[in-house]
């Protein structure tokens, strides 16, 4: 009886559990509610017990259903990985490689990887999208890019796999003539909050309602890291920057590093990861490019 179970039944079970109702699961799977109910009833006959409690307005997972949900996700995920890898092997070399890259990623390291890619795959065009936050993620989720390099956003999207690449140290800086530059020691967060903080903004709605490292009540949002860099040098506010981008400014004294009092992330880094959709992993060229980013 157990051998008759199908991946379709498990996907229906997962959808019903995640969506909270059989009708919502049907919409997600593009099936009639009656088909969803019938599929789940058959699955319950095969396992020998109820997966959902149906006495209320909405079906609720039983204790046994909750226990099986993680296993169902693992089984479906494993099958998706198998199919995706088989598909990439059948496809062969990508006709083009599109990659979304976090603006925080060290440009020198990216340049060397691109140079090596051009030598190894001279007939494979490489298309790069340099963005921040959700704008790095969205092209991968919607299929415009096969690989994403993310660091400014700490979360890896669900249904994606990721490989660690490197950590990019970051620092808080202000212009030498900014009032905060006069502080010899750590600056109280209340004092920092009195001044304009320059932060990157997301071009997408993926991080809507979320803030990353925002302390001040006076915020200027910029969608471009280069503009943020120039605004910092002009003394228009304070903010964090990848250390490699401001090393020359710190050496010349046009920017000054500051520390915040009682800040749990005094020395923080952007953890860079290569990520891709589990159902659409990179092919040979994409895997090669990711491996080079790890080396340089």
From TrEMBL:
Keyword presence, Flavoprotein:
no
State the protein's name. Bacterial regulatory helix-turn-helix, lysR family protein
Q: Specify the HTH lysR-type domain's residue ranges.
A: 5-62
InterPro entries the record matches = LysR_HTH_N, LysR_subst-bd, WH-like_DNA-bd_sf, WH_DNA-bd_sf
Species for this entry: Collimonas fungivorans
Q: Which family does this protein fall into?
A: Belongs to the LysR transcriptional regulatory family.
Q: Which PROSITE patterns match?
A: HTH_LYSR (PS50931)
Pfam families named among the record's database cross-references: HTH_1, LysR_substrate
Which UniProt keywords are listed?
DNA-binding, Transcription, Transcription regulation
- Superkingdom: Bacteria
Record-level Gene Ontology MF annotations: DNA-binding transcription factor activity; transcription cis-regulatory region binding
Query: Which SUPFAM superfamilies would you find in this protein's record?
Result: Periplasmic binding protein-like II, Winged helix' DNA-binding domain
Q: Which PANTHER family match?
A: HTH-TYPE TRANSCRIPTIONAL REGULATOR, LYSR FAMILY TRANSCRIPTIONAL REGULATOR
């Amino acid at each position: 009886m157990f051998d008759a179970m199908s991946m379709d039944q498990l996907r229906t079970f997962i959808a019903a559990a995640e969506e909270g109702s059989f009708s919502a699961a049907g919409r997600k799977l593009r099936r009639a509610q009656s088909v969803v109910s019938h599929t789940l009833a058959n699955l319950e006959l095969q396992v020998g017990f109820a997966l959902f409690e149906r006495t209320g307005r909405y079906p609720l997972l039983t204790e046994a259903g909750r226990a099986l949900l993680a296993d169902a996700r693992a089984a479906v995920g494993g099958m998706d990985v198998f199919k995706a890898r088989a598909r990439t092997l059948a496809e062969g070399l990508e006709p083009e490689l599109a990659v979304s890259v976090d603006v925080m990623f060290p440009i020198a390291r990216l340049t060397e990887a691109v140079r090596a890619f051009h030598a190894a795959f001279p007939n494979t065009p490489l298309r790069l999208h340099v963005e921040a936050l959700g704008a790095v993620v969205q092209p991968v989720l919607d299929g415009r890019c096969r690989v994403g390099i993310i660091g400014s956003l700490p979360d890896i999207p669900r249904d994606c796999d990721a490989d660690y690449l490197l950590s990019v140290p970051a620092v808080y800086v202000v212009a030498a003539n900014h009032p905060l530059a006069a502080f010899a020691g750590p600056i109280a967060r209340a004092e920092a909050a009195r001044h304009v903080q320059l932060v990157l903004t997301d071009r997408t709605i993926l991080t809507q309602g979320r803030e990353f490292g925002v302390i001040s009540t006076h915020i200027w949002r910029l969608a471009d890291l280069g503009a943020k860099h120039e605004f910092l040098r002009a003394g228009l506010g304070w903010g964090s920057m990848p250390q490699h981008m401001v090393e020359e400014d710190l050496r010349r004294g046009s920017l000054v590093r500051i520390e915040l009092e009682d800040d749990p992330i005094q020395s923080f880094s952007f953890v860079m990861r290569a990520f891709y959709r589990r159902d659409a992993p990179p092919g040979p060229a994409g895997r090669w490019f990711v491996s080079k980013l790890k080396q340089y």
